[in-house]
Amino acid sequence: MASIHFSRLTEPTTAIAEAFTRWENDQQIKYLARFNRNQADLDASNEITIEQLTQRIQHTAIYLIYLDERLIGEMSYQIDPPLLLQPEANSAWIGITIGEHQARGQGIGNQALAYLEQQIAAQGLSRIELGVFEFNQPAFALYTKRGYHEIGRINAFTYWQGRMWADIRMEKRF
């Protein structure tokens, strides 16, 4: 049976940066994880460096997702970032990426979200906010199943398949 575990990122390595870069540029998922203003943004390649990850962990808690000792994804949260739709003290903004194809659709995102919620609650935070693009129905269904509800939409937020789509903002309170 596959073993899933999570580890907080404290020391970025070349291998971790390479995995993040691969996921960031994966045509099958990059439109799900980052907003794009146009086709050029969607087509652009990005490199994630050790230096960028080192800077990122100064203000973002990043957890690596492992399946049988193989790095398959990452999840993170920030506390009270400026991008919150409803700025409220003690709020976490979260993101989850299951980067490796063979790990998707197996319930790992649900397990990762449960773990991330535990970490956030342990920090004494009382609220989580997230954004999910309106075309990402599997993620929307997962968040709804886990008790998140829609609090607003930012229309014409991201580009995909020749048009602009909304960002659905959702929250969960503890």
TrEMBL record:
<dbReference type="InterPro" id="IPR000182">
    <property type="entry name" value="GNAT_dom"/>
</dbReference>
<dbReference type="InterPro" id="IPR016181">
    <property type="entry name" value="Acyl_CoA_acyltransferase"/>
</dbReference>
<protein>
    <recommendedName>
        <fullName>N-acetyltransferase domain-containing protein</fullName>
    </recommendedName>
</protein>
<dbReference type="GO" id="GO:0016747">
    <property type="term" value="F:acyltransferase activity, transferring groups other than amino-acyl groups"/>
</dbReference>
<feature type="domain" description="N-acetyltransferase">
    <location>
        <begin position="4"/>
        <end position="174"/>
    </location>
</feature>
<dbReference type="Pfam" id="PF00583">
    <property type="entry name" value="Acetyltransf_1"/>
</dbReference>
